[in-house]
Inverse folding.
């Protein structure tokens, strides 16, 4: 069953005088319960593809053609109200630097409660109880304390867990993770990845994981799509990509990854 | 508290606010009662700050005048800041055409010499405390509006605002709950300075006879009456002048302290 279907997606950046194409016809499918890793070098359009899914692109980015279907719904024809209903409830995001993505003025608890209150008819006490439960779910140590902490009081790993709790608050069907471990050190990265996969198994969401790090792709992917200059150049099951890469760029990425492995 | 500037400013303002609130209890005489046997009495033990040309006790008049001056300052700036917040938020958040429209309107408003605009409006509507508060408010919102627009322009690009969009928060919620609280620091500093400016403006208007009308005392209109007797009765000029000076100093110190405190 296909959950997310992107066809011929083109996005342009409108700068002062010129128009810069960033996506040149992206095709992507994601099935229910699947983990798809979108890999590629910086600037290849991975993040823009991800942001386009719930239309939270930067203001100067314009979708010029293509379709995005989520559970049969045409995302590009939805109005703002239906979109806000979808964002956070059905499609959730986690990002690269959790501290920057949390509002510095509100406590962790407050921000998790916000997602809950936005999408569910719940009063503050119920939302608080649920936020606490979510913090337990993402295995934060000492959730009773963390719920009242501000983002700057927590470490990067803790913040990413808290942000994950916020993203999962409404049991979304699709989680889009945009390089969620790039800013973390290797041990924390492994912990977060394991947590993500465990939660995926328990809650049954689909995962679109963006990274430039092929070792992560090898660890978590069902399928891998390689992006290069605004296009998906190769796409297939994990083993196929690693064992018999077809496209030149995939081979370059792999050889770079292997070279690093040898060092 | 380590911030001595802020502490000192707050002390001054609390002192004057208490005087204003407790005016009926602490003023030694009725502020408008004329005593023909005690015209232009120099400061002594019965009249601590002396009397004016009509024999009214100067200390009582300054005490009652503080009510007018402080409330004009607070309410005028309150109005200006609210209008500024409204237009500044819209311009900064939505950008594009709305931004151009609002900012050109701000430019037009800034082209008027404010003081003469106020003079003209007072001449038409008639001088009253109420009118003056509103007019000062309506002609001084452009500064706050520009300030808030500027803050919004940089804040709206921050990651946590993108994260808010991603969890499905509406535009109004993002503006009210996330952008304004983050932008409020400089606005408060500006408002504090604005209060000082409004008090001066009210004094200036009263000095020209277009402000608060006698026999109601305001610091400005006590000063007008002093100009004919400056040579013989220095106290009528010096004491209300000191009251204005110290209050403005207080507000400026608070603004300075807040600037340090809020970064």
């Amino acid at each position: 069953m296909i959950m997310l279907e992107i066809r011929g997606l083109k996005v342009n950046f409108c700068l002062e005088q010129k128009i810069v194409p960033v996506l040149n016809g992206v095709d992507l499918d994601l099935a229910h319960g699947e983990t798809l890793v979108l890999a590629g070098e910086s600037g290849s359009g991975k993040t823009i593809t991800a942001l386009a899914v719930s239309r939270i692109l930067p203001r100067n980015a314009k979708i010029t053609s293509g379709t995005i279907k989520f559970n049969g719904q045409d995302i590009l024809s939805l109005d703002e109200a239906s979109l806000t209903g979808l964002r956070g409830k059905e499609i959730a995001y986690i990002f690269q630097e959790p501290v920057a993505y949390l509002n510095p003025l509100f406590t962790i608890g407050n921000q998790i409660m916000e997602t809950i209150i936005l999408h569910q008819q719940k009063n503050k006490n119920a939302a608080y109880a649920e936020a606490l439960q979510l913090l337990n779910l993402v295995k934060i140590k000492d959730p009773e304390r963390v719920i009242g902490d501000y983002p700057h009081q927590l470490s990067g790993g803790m913040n990413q867990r808290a942000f994950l709790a916020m993203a999962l608050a409404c049991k979304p069907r699709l989680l889009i993770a945009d390089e969620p471990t790039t800013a973390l050190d290797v041990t924390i990265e492994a912990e977060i990845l394991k947590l993500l996969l465990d939660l995926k198994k328990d809650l049954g969401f689909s995962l679109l994981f963006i990274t430039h790090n092929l070792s992560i792709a090898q660890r978590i992917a069902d399928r891998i799509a390689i992006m290069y200059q605004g296009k998906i150049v190769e796409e297939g099951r994990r083993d196929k990509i690693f064992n018999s890469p077809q496209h030149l760029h995939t081979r370059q990425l792999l050889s770079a990854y292997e070279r690093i492995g040898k060092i | 508290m380590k911030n001595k500037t802020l502490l000192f400013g707050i002390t001054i303002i609390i002192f004057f606010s208490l005087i204003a609130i407790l005016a009926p209890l602490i003023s030694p005489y009725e502020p408008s009662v004329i005593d023909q046997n005690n015209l232009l009495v120099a400061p002594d033990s019965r009249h601590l700050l002396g009397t004016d040309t009509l024999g009214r006790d100067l200390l009582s008049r300054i005490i009652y005048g503080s009510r007018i001056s402080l409330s004009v300052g607070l309410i005028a700036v309150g109005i200006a800041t609210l209008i500024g917040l409204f237009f500044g938020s819209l311009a900064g958040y939505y950008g594009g055409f709305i931004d151009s429209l609002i900012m050109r309107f701000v430019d037009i408003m800034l082209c008027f010499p404010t003081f003469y605009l106020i003079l003209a409006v007072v001449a038409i509507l008639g001088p009253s405390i109420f009118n003056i508060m509103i007019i000062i408010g309506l002609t001084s919102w452009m500064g706050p509006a520009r300030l808030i627009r500027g803050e919004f322009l940089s804040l709206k690009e921050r990651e946590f605002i993108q994260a808010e969009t991603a969890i499905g928060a509406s535009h109004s919620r993002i503006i009210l709950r996330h952008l304004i609280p983050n932008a409020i620091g400089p606005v408060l500093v500006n408002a504090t300075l604005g209060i000082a400016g409004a008090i001066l403006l009210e004094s200036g208007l009263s000095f020209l006879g277009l402000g608060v009308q006698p026999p109601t005392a305001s610091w400005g209109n006590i000063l007008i009456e002093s100009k004919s007797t400056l040579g013989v009765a220095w106290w009528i000029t010096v004491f209300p002048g000191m009251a204005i000076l110290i209050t403005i100093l207080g507000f400026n110190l608070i603004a300075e302290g807040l600037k340090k405190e809020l970064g």
Summary: The mean pLDDT of chain B is 88. Chain B touches chain A at residues 95, 158-160, 162-171, 173, 177-178, 181-182 (CB under 8 Å).
